[in-house]
Amino acid sequence: LRLLVTTIQEGGGYDLGLATDGDADRIAIIDEKGRYISTNDILLLVYWYMHEVREERGGVVRNLATTHLLDRLAAHFGEVSCEVPVGFKHIAAGMIKHNALLGGESSGGLTVRGWILGKDGIFASALIVEMLAKTGKRLSQLQEEVWKITGRLYALEEGIPATPEMRVAIPKRLAETPIEKVGDYPVLKISHYDGTKVLMANDNWALLRFSGTEPVLRLMVEADSPEKAQELIDWLKQFCLSSK
Predict the structure, then answer these.
(1) Which of 34, 71, 117, 164 could, after both became Cys, cross-link 81 (CB 3.0–4.6 A)?
(2) Of 153, 105, 40, 75, nearest in space to 94 by CA
(3) How far apart are CA 71 and CA 115, in angstroms?
(4) Angle 121-135/39-52 helices, nearest 10 degrees?
């Protein structure tokens, strides 16, 4: 994406930059200032646009590694947000079950009701262009409008090499000694239905999940501030590395 960022920053006059991965099922967006827009924020913008500008109604389905700001936005609209395991097949099934308006994941895939039940980066890119054309606003302006509704949360993700021993030791430790605090932050709830997800106050959370496609343990967090997000991810790394 560096070339796309540089082109926008140095060229001037661009409204946005669009990119897809090799098979065009995931997208990446650069705003008019040359800033990368995370998929979490893209999902927020698309959901807001579909609901408020297109005036379509319905909830949202996200996987457990995707922003809880979608939950806040859905609640603001009087709609339901459903969490499912990682894997777009689960998002598709959830959309059918709940007749949801939007389904998406933080890794770059999304779809909407009435389109295919799979990731389509070209369609998603066209939807972003339509959003800018119909609202007449810049991406940065739309982001600020949506954040006024949802507030902010900051996500971080890291991966650490996962040995076969870790795949045994970490789940065993989690089962024998449930996490009560992540750093200084009390745990409100723990879910084990896809990895281990720890829920804290104010929609803050931390997730430990072994990849199903490579020997990596993925650590993901979302918190009130960038500093707190870094605290949470550092604590997770220390917890995992001390469990070898």
Answers:
(1) 71
(2) 105
(3) 22
(4) 60
Q: What is residue 140's predicted lDDT score, i.e. its pLDDT?
A: 94
List % helix, strand, coil for the chain (3-state, nearest 5): 40, 25, 35
CA distances from 34 to 26, 31, 71, 130, 153 (A): 19, 5, 28, 19, 21
HSE-up (13 A, CA, CB side) for residue 110: 31
Element containing residue 196 per DSSP (H, E): strand 196-199
Q: What is the pLDDT of residue 113?
A: 95
The reported pTM is: 0.93
Give residue-wise pLDDT tens across range 192-223. Answer: 989 999 999 999 999 999 998 899 999 999 99
Q: How far is CA 164 from the centre of its chain?
A: 28
Look at residue 16 and tell me whether its pLDDT is greater than 80. Answer: yes
- The residues near 164 (Cβ < 8 Å, ≥ 6 apart) are none
How high does pLDDT run on average in the chain?
Answer: 94
Question: Does residue 14 sit in helix, strand or coil?
Answer: coil
Whether the Cβ atoms of residue 231 and residue 183 lie closer than 8 Å to each other: yes
Cβ-Cβ contacts under 8 Å for 62 (sequence gap 6 or more): 43, 70, 81, 82, 83, 84, 91, 103, 104, 105
Asked if residue 244 has pLDDT above 70, the reply is: no
What CA dihedral angle connects 43, 48, 54 and 56, to 10 degrees? 90
**Ordered domains of the chain (ranges, CATH):** 38-150 (3.40.120.10), 154-241 (3.30.310.50)
